[in-house]
Amino acid sequence: xxxxxxxxxxxxxxxxxxxxxxxxxxxxxxxxxxxxxxxxxxxxxxxxxxxxxxxxxxxxxxxxxxxxxxxxxxxxxxxxxxxxxxxxxxxxxxxxxxxxxxxxxxxxxxxxxxxxxxxxxxxxxxxxxxxxxxxxxxxxxxxxxxxxxxxxxxxxxxxxxxxxxxxxxxxxxxxxxxxxxxxxxxxxxxxxxxxxxxxxxxxxxxxxxxxxxxxxxxxxxxxxxxxxxxxxxxxxxxxxxxxxxxxxxxxxxxxxxxxxxxxxxxxxxxxxxx
Length: 274
Description:
Elements: H1 3-14, E1 18-22, H2 40-51, E2 57-60, H3 62-66, H4 71-84, E3 91-96, H5 100-113, E4 118-121, H6 131-136, E5 141-147, E6 160-161, E7 169-170, H7 171-180, E8 189-193, H8 198-207, E9 213-215, H9 225-232, E10 236-240, H10 242-245, H11 253-271
Parallel strand pairs: 1-2, 1-10, 3-4, 4-5, 5-8, 8-9, 9-10
Antiparallel strand pairs: 6-7
Helix pairs in contact: 2-4, 2-11, 7-8, 8-9
């Protein structure tokens, strides 16, 4: 089964468009695990057990593991998700982007070593930096950075492009257009578009009406849920990380994470029923 079908089935089965980001920070783990980097997988696994029926995807952030030498825990966690939440895809948040010869190794890292179902990638180096993922792993998903939720995204993504005889187009709109068209050779591409700029999600949808949108920025970053859902169409995942992971600080952290995940899943469903 390819990524898009897997994701859509998980959406329908769990009646959810919620993607849960797994961004563990040792100093924020509950006692007695606080500051114990050897317990990242244990913490995330407990959250997975508590939320497996509420989400349409999990999104572990590779840097949170690699920074403390916990890559083996990340491998273990993804195997755990596939075992305990079968059918729920794993999106590895790596934001890789490099020339083709190096991208080939990044693709192996994401899809062979970590066994992720999809990965986030940067489009800055163009199509040839994406081809190694698509050619070797045509069934896996790629979410291309398009209009990100951070303030610095304005530095480049909103720049206006002008071509002779063509209407002006902002850089992020060009990325969306390419991803929806000539780049999408196996139908496996999606876009990352932040909830902090719902008006730009509308612009993305104007040129890429059917691509899956991975939408961060709701929750700790303060994105407006209603405006985001109204802009996103019907093929989207709303990602939440810190607001769910750290909903509780004590021994009941997993049940607190479940309560917040359920609240958010239901809030999204009320705006966009599945």
